[in-house]
Amino acid sequence: MVGGVVAAVAAVARDLADLVLPRTCAGCGLPGRVLCPRCAALLTTPRAATPRRVPWGFPPTAAAGAYSGPLRPAVNAFKEQGRTELAGPLGTALALAVAAVVAAAPRLPGPVLLVPVPSSAAALRSRGRDHVGELTRRAVAELRAAGLPAEEARLLRRSGRVRDSAGLSAAARRANLAGTFRRDEAPPRRGLVVLVDDVVTSGATLTEAAAELSSGRRPSDAPVLAAVVAATPRRPPRTVSRGDLRVVPKRSENVRRPSSGRLSGPEVKD
């Protein structure tokens, strides 16, 4: 009874907020929805994410869309401008990217562990929230609803201080992040571990986080994978087969072939 009253009050509050501050699409500014159908459609075709200069050890990564056009302001509105209502569509997009990279990997027993990339203490203070954690929880719920067993696993934390990465080269970003991730516990050797984040640009963050998670793992263990909402496009996309995203045990071989492009049509497997 109490829960129903709270839900009703929340619904009325949302309706009143829409009257005072009408919703607009975070991507294109069209009034009516937090993400209009046209902008939301840009997050429905997962693709392999490859930075312009692939760092050694960059994990096999899938992205739900390209970090360009209207998706760029949409992701930034959620991340930096406090538009928390975008956690729904962006978290669903993250779930689609996780399903894509998992579909390309060997099937292993146990749930898929989603490991959110932790933000720095300064970023958490500035934003007042853990935006990647919000996306992760929504993605876990979506994956479970689709029949893919998934769990959130907070295996990483940040330590030390880093400077703002804006304007830094890919090599400088990697050096800036070196040693800043710490593993609280080792992931299971045979389970699938998927690092999740909002965007990937240079690949430095995912590479450093994957290196820390992979420390001590044997060559026969499953590789650490990654999934993001959006990735900086490397070149104009071309439709290719899902086989272009290779997932192999040796991390040194997890660099995609030159014929990169979109990842099409993966289905969720349980």
Count of helical stretches: 8
Task: Give helix % range.
Answer: 25-40%
Give the N-terminus to C-terminus distance in angstroms: 36 Å
Radius of gyration: 19 Å
Average pLDDT, all residues: 79
Largest sheet: 6 strands, mixed
Q: Which secondary-structure class do the elements indicate? A: alpha/beta
Series of H and E elements: HHEEHHEHHEEHEEHE
- Write out the strand line-up for the largest beta sheet, numbering strands in chain order: 1-2-8-7-3-4
In one word, what is the shape?
globular
Overview of the structural elements:
38% of the residues are buried. The C terminus is likely disordered. The radius of gyration is 19 Å and the shape is globular. It is built from eight helices and eight strands. It has one domain. Helix 8 links the parallel strand 7 and strand 8. The longest helix is centred in the N-terminal third of the chain and has 19 residues. A six-stranded mixed β-sheet has the order 1-2-8-7-3-4, with helices on both faces. Strands 5-6 form a two-stranded antiparallel ribbon.
Blueprint of the fold:
Elements: H1 2-20, H2 37-40, E1 47-48, E2 61-66, H3 71-80, H4 87-103, E3 112-116, H5 121-127, H6 131-145, E4 150-152, E5 156-158, H7 170-177, E6 181-183, E7 193-200, H8 204-214, E8 224-231
Parallel strand pairs: 2-8, 3-4, 3-7, 7-8
Antiparallel strand pairs: 1-2, 5-6
Helix pairs in contact: 4-6, 7-8
